[in-house]
Design goal:
This protein has about 180 residues and is mostly beta strands. The chain has two helices and nine strands.
Protein backbone atom coordinates (compact mmCIF):
# COMPACT_ATOMS: atom_id res chain seq x y z
CA UNK A 1 0.00 0.00 0.00
CA UNK A 2 1.02 3.58 -0.53
CA UNK A 3 1.96 5.22 2.76
CA UNK A 4 -1.21 7.35 2.83
CA UNK A 5 -3.64 4.57 1.82
CA UNK A 6 -5.65 2.91 4.57
CA UNK A 7 -7.05 -0.61 4.71
CA UNK A 8 -5.96 -4.20 4.20
CA UNK A 9 -2.25 -4.89 4.30
CA UNK A 10 -0.84 -8.34 3.61
CA UNK A 11 2.40 -9.41 5.29
CA UNK A 12 4.09 -12.79 4.85
CA UNK A 13 5.73 -14.17 7.98
CA UNK A 14 8.28 -16.38 6.23
CA UNK A 15 10.25 -16.48 2.97
CA UNK A 16 8.36 -19.47 1.53
CA UNK A 17 4.98 -17.77 1.94
CA UNK A 18 6.37 -14.47 0.63
CA UNK A 19 7.63 -16.20 -2.53
CA UNK A 20 4.28 -17.94 -3.06
CA UNK A 21 2.31 -14.72 -2.56
CA UNK A 22 4.67 -12.81 -4.85
CA UNK A 23 4.02 -15.33 -7.59
CA UNK A 24 0.27 -15.01 -7.13
CA UNK A 25 0.41 -11.23 -7.33
CA UNK A 26 2.59 -11.44 -10.47
CA UNK A 27 0.19 -13.89 -12.13
CA UNK A 28 -2.73 -11.61 -11.16
CA UNK A 29 -4.44 -14.35 -9.15
CA UNK A 30 -5.05 -11.95 -6.24
CA UNK A 31 -8.20 -9.80 -6.42
CA UNK A 32 -8.04 -6.33 -4.84
CA UNK A 33 -10.88 -3.90 -4.17
CA UNK A 34 -10.41 -0.27 -3.21
CA UNK A 35 -12.80 2.55 -2.36
CA UNK A 36 -11.91 6.12 -3.32
CA UNK A 37 -13.57 9.50 -3.17
CA UNK A 38 -12.90 11.37 -6.38
CA UNK A 39 -13.45 14.96 -7.42
CA UNK A 40 -15.50 15.77 -10.48
CA UNK A 41 -18.69 14.64 -12.11
CA UNK A 42 -17.27 13.33 -15.36
CA UNK A 43 -17.01 9.69 -14.31
CA UNK A 44 -19.21 7.27 -16.23
CA UNK A 45 -21.01 4.91 -13.82
CA UNK A 46 -19.04 1.77 -14.69
CA UNK A 47 -16.03 1.38 -16.96
CA UNK A 48 -12.38 0.44 -17.38
CA UNK A 49 -9.32 2.65 -17.62
CA UNK A 50 -6.61 1.07 -19.75
CA UNK A 51 -3.70 3.45 -19.76
CA UNK A 52 -0.04 2.46 -19.77
CA UNK A 53 2.11 4.02 -17.06
CA UNK A 54 5.70 5.17 -16.96
CA UNK A 55 8.05 5.99 -14.10
CA UNK A 56 8.39 9.71 -13.43
CA UNK A 57 10.60 11.79 -11.16
CA UNK A 58 10.63 11.47 -7.37
CA UNK A 59 9.07 8.00 -7.29
CA UNK A 60 5.90 9.04 -9.07
CA UNK A 61 4.19 7.50 -12.08
CA UNK A 62 2.66 9.21 -15.09
CA UNK A 63 0.59 8.18 -18.10
CA UNK A 64 2.85 6.90 -20.86
CA UNK A 65 2.69 8.29 -24.37
CA UNK A 66 1.72 5.79 -27.12
CA UNK A 67 4.69 3.58 -28.02
CA UNK A 68 6.93 5.09 -25.35
CA UNK A 69 9.85 2.80 -24.39
CA UNK A 70 9.62 1.63 -20.77
CA UNK A 71 5.83 1.94 -20.60
CA UNK A 72 4.03 -0.72 -18.57
CA UNK A 73 0.45 -1.78 -19.20
CA UNK A 74 -2.12 -0.98 -16.52
CA UNK A 75 -5.85 -1.60 -16.22
CA UNK A 76 -8.32 -0.45 -13.56
CA UNK A 77 -12.01 -1.38 -13.56
CA UNK A 78 -14.21 0.97 -11.58
CA UNK A 79 -17.83 1.62 -10.69
CA UNK A 80 -19.36 4.77 -9.26
CA UNK A 81 -21.22 3.73 -6.11
CA UNK A 82 -22.66 7.13 -5.30
CA UNK A 83 -22.18 10.73 -6.38
CA UNK A 84 -23.45 13.99 -4.97
CA UNK A 85 -22.95 17.73 -5.31
CA UNK A 86 -20.69 19.58 -2.90
CA UNK A 87 -20.56 23.37 -2.87
CA UNK A 88 -21.16 23.69 -6.61
CA UNK A 89 -18.82 20.81 -7.51
CA UNK A 90 -19.20 17.04 -7.43
CA UNK A 91 -17.82 14.12 -5.47
CA UNK A 92 -18.07 10.43 -6.31
CA UNK A 93 -17.55 7.35 -4.15
CA UNK A 94 -15.79 4.95 -6.53
CA UNK A 95 -15.14 1.22 -6.16
CA UNK A 96 -11.88 0.37 -7.95
CA UNK A 97 -10.50 -3.01 -9.03
CA UNK A 98 -6.91 -2.74 -10.25
CA UNK A 99 -6.39 -5.64 -12.66
CA UNK A 100 -2.66 -4.97 -12.83
CA UNK A 101 -0.60 -4.02 -9.80
CA UNK A 102 1.30 -0.93 -10.80
CA UNK A 103 2.63 1.67 -8.38
CA UNK A 104 0.06 4.45 -7.82
CA UNK A 105 -2.11 2.92 -10.56
CA UNK A 106 -5.54 3.93 -9.23
CA UNK A 107 -4.31 7.41 -8.35
CA UNK A 108 -2.83 8.00 -11.83
CA UNK A 109 -5.80 6.47 -13.68
CA UNK A 110 -8.45 8.53 -11.88
CA UNK A 111 -6.37 11.68 -12.33
CA UNK A 112 -5.90 10.91 -16.04
CA UNK A 113 -9.66 10.77 -16.62
CA UNK A 114 -10.15 14.10 -14.84
CA UNK A 115 -11.37 12.82 -11.45
CA UNK A 116 -8.43 12.78 -9.04
CA UNK A 117 -8.75 11.26 -5.58
CA UNK A 118 -9.48 13.81 -2.89
CA UNK A 119 -6.54 14.90 -0.73
CA UNK A 120 -4.01 13.29 -3.05
CA UNK A 121 -0.87 15.37 -2.52
CA UNK A 122 0.96 13.75 -5.46
CA UNK A 123 -1.69 13.45 -8.18
CA UNK A 124 -4.49 15.76 -7.13
CA UNK A 125 -3.08 19.09 -6.02
CA UNK A 126 -5.56 21.02 -8.16
CA UNK A 127 -8.45 19.49 -6.20
CA UNK A 128 -7.40 21.18 -2.97
CA UNK A 129 -8.85 24.44 -4.17
CA UNK A 130 -12.38 25.40 -3.06
CA UNK A 131 -14.76 23.71 -2.67
CA UNK A 132 -12.80 20.50 -2.02
CA UNK A 133 -10.61 21.99 0.70
CA UNK A 134 -13.75 22.35 2.87
CA UNK A 135 -14.29 18.59 3.14
CA UNK A 136 -13.70 16.97 6.55
CA UNK A 137 -10.88 14.78 5.25
CA UNK A 138 -7.29 15.16 6.34
CA UNK A 139 -5.73 12.34 4.31
CA UNK A 140 -5.74 10.61 0.95
CA UNK A 141 -9.31 9.36 0.30
CA UNK A 142 -8.21 5.89 -0.87
CA UNK A 143 -8.95 2.75 1.12
CA UNK A 144 -7.89 -0.86 0.41
CA UNK A 145 -11.26 -2.42 1.26
CA UNK A 146 -10.66 -6.10 0.47
CA UNK A 147 -8.24 -8.64 -0.90
CA UNK A 148 -9.05 -12.15 -2.13
CA UNK A 149 -6.30 -14.73 -2.08
CA UNK A 150 -6.31 -18.08 -3.82
CA UNK A 151 -5.05 -21.12 -1.94
CA UNK A 152 -1.57 -20.41 -0.49
CA UNK A 153 0.41 -23.46 0.62
CA UNK A 154 -1.80 -25.23 3.19
CA UNK A 155 -4.22 -22.30 3.56
CA UNK A 156 -7.54 -22.35 1.66
CA UNK A 157 -8.62 -19.43 -0.53
CA UNK A 158 -9.75 -16.51 1.58
CA UNK A 159 -11.07 -12.97 1.50
CA UNK A 160 -9.85 -10.34 3.93
CA UNK A 161 -11.79 -7.11 4.40
CA UNK A 162 -10.95 -3.93 6.27
CA UNK A 163 -14.00 -3.43 8.45
CA UNK A 164 -12.98 -0.43 10.50
CA UNK A 165 -13.25 2.93 8.81
CA UNK A 166 -10.40 5.41 9.18
CA UNK A 167 -10.73 7.57 12.30
CA UNK A 168 -10.61 10.94 10.57
CA UNK A 169 -13.60 10.18 8.34
CA UNK A 170 -16.09 9.34 11.07
CA UNK A 171 -17.36 12.92 11.03
CA UNK A 172 -18.26 12.57 7.34
CA UNK A 173 -21.94 11.85 6.55
CA UNK A 174 -22.65 8.11 6.34
CA UNK A 175 -23.16 8.21 2.55
CA UNK A 176 -19.56 9.45 2.16
CA UNK A 177 -17.88 7.02 4.54
CA UNK A 178 -15.35 4.52 3.21
Amino acid sequence: LDHATSGVLLIALDARTAAMLSGQFESRAVEKRYVAFAAGATLPDDTTVTLALHAARKGKMRPATPGEPGAISARTDYAVEHSWPHAGAAIARVRCHPRTGRQHQIRVHLRAIGCPILRDSHYGLATFKPPYDTLPLSRLALHAAAIELPRVLEQPAQRVEALEEPRDVRAVPHSMQM
